[in-house]
Amino acid sequence: MKPPPQIVAALFGVAALAVFPLLAPTYYAGLMIPFFAYAIALLGFNLLFGYGGLLSFGHAMFIGFGAYGTAVMAGVFGVKSFELALAAVVLGSALAAIPIGLLCVRYTGIFFGMLTLAFGMLFHSFLFKFYYVTGGDSGMRIPRMNILGLEFAQYNKITFLTGPFYYYCLALLVIAAFAMWRIVHSPFGLHLRALRENSRKAEYLGVHVRRFRLAAFVISAAFGAAGGAILGFRIGLADPELVYWTQSGQLVFMTVLGGFHHFLGPVIGALAFTFLQDQLQSLTQYWRFVLGAILALLVIGFPAGIAGWADLANWRLKSRKAAA
Amino acid sequence: MSAFANIVLGGVFHAAVLFLVAAGLQLVFGVQKILNLACGSFYALGAYFGITFVGFAIASGMPAWALLPVLVLAGLIVGLVGLPIERMLRTVYGRDESFQLLLTFALLLMFQDVFRFFWGANPRSIEANYLVYGKLAGGDFTVPVYNLLVILAAILVAAGFGLFLQKTNYGRVLRATAENRAMAEALGVNVSRVYAAVFTAGTMLGTVAGALVVPTAAASLDMAVELVVEAFAVVVIGGLGSMPGALAGAVVVGLIHAYAIYAYPELELLATYLIVIGVLLLRPAGLFGRPAT
After folding, report:
1. Region B124-131: what's the mean pLDDT?
2. What ranges do the domains of chain A cover?
3. Which domain holds residue B243?
4. Does the pLDDT of residue B138 top 80, yes or no?
5. N or C, which terminus of chain A has less Cβ within 10 Å?
6. Which residues in A lie closer than 8 A to residue B35 (C-beta atoms)?
7. Burial of B6 by CB count in 10 Å (0-12 exposed, 13-18 middle, 19+ buried)?
């Protein structure tokens, strides 16, 4: 029996990511860490947006929970183990998402987006203004931690990030993607899609609309915090810019760029966005304009994103073969 | 007493500016059902263009008292960018709300660099002195007359819009289109022209607000993204799509803002968002909005 093509593609992708730091310059290997962070966060985000049909414009808040949570764990409580901090922020973010989600999932569409935006900005202004707790605009430092109990003391920061930490993040991404794959292909995932398509009909059929949306919200918050922890660990700093509402917009951008109809779309989007932004920034100081123009073109002309494009090319190839 | 008067006057001035931007947002949302994230960019565009335009006007011999009308004129002129932008938004009418939001977010990103390109990254301020209109002293406080004139202008716009929408034929056409696009079209309304007019008017409200505020505060790259969240707060508190709501929301946000800065600066923005969340929870449709379906 042939394995399904998605599995082959996924294995191929993981293998490519595994050899990448051996072949590419260190700079690009370092650039992959934020990619891993965003990919994990966006897998969660897309459960809400792609599968649940709820567009959150405040999702950067959970990234902030992850980064600031790690800073508090490491800086205040002196936790040395990154896994412990990661587990704590994922759990903490999921718990914090319950009351927020309870309030937000009463709405859909624009109102959901605006309410999440308001919560995100509430958290941002808390971080920004209560500087004696959060460090204000200078943020909170995240000291270096050990991974899997190993110090890697012989590595300096860059070789650590592009060496052991790279593979650590790759493993986290694989675990996160596997977990999310199970979630979206479970009855829960099917319920969520049914809700997106027609929430009233789903309700008639006995689906607890709000309960399912809340669960999706909480799961996406946990994934977001995991991404935030990696992001903060890499920079060594949790700063309020991570939480500003334009960051939330950027998360949506990445997801649409990759293709939100597709399971791996957000991962592809994170990769494409990370490299696109880096290249544009080195080319021109007006990179935001180019990014904005790309986003506008995507929305107008190709809302299915890169993954949708690949699908279309694949389909054309097949139909041409069938015709021949 | 003077503290109280300062809070009220400062708050009402801020509210007047917020009202203009929020009115533009409401107008566009009411008719086209698009929530415009780029409203803050229009505001910033008005501010930057106002600086340049007044610079030209002074160079060509503008009398000092003409500052306010020249600024309004600058806002109206640059508001015409609404026309081509509406052409672009036309591609997403009737599509999913998230795409409409994203397209306006793309506009916001692009405008950030347009400002950077034409006006640079440093804050810019106007060369003219807005104190030409004098100051009004009452008891133990003073207030620039310019601020009062801006408040007056906002009140006139509010009243004018109310009359226009309720009493004129074109206003009725607008309301009919907002109510039921297909029916209005069937009855012979040129809907695409109405949409273009509405969006341009909404843009102009934003650009005029930006132009009017620029004598009292410098224009900076942050002003666009910062204003968006405040304008959002205003329309959520007032109710999406409602003009009286925009007015009420602007007054609430403006006064809270002014009071928080005076009493407890840490709470400046926090207080606004707390009220937004409170309103959404207790009255999801806002103070004057119709319940969402």
Report:
1. 78
2. 26-245+259-267
3. 2-282
4. no
5. N
6. 110, 114
7. middle
Is A296 close to B281, i.e. CB distance below 8 A? no
Window 125-164 of A: residues touching B by CB (8 A cutoff) are: 125-126, 128-130
Nearest partner of B269 among A242, A126, A61, A60, judged by Cα: A126
Nearest residue in chain A measured CA to CA from B33: A110
Q: With respect to residue B148, please indicate whether it lies within any of the assigned structural domains.
A: yes
Nearest CA in chain A to B276: A118
Token readout for A69 is: 């949570």
Tell me, what's the pLDDT at B291? 56
CATH of the domain at B68: 1.10.3470
CA-based nearest residue to B208, from B134, B154, B170, B133: B154
ipTM: 0.87
Chain A residues whose CB is inside 8 A of the B110 CB are 288-289, 292-293, 296
- Number of domains comprising chain B: 1
Q: Between A150 and A185, name the one with better pLDDT.
A: A185
Do A57 and A124 meet the contact criterion of CB atoms below 8 Å apart? no
The whole-number average pLDDT for the span A218-232 is: 95
The reply to whether B287 falls in a domain is: no
Average pLDDT, chain B: 87
pTM above threshold 0.95: no
Q: B107 and A292: CB-CB below 8 Å?
A: yes
B268, A125 Cβ separation under 8 angstroms: yes
Find the CB nearest A286 among B102, B113, B273: B113
- Rg of chain B over CA atoms, in angstroms? 19
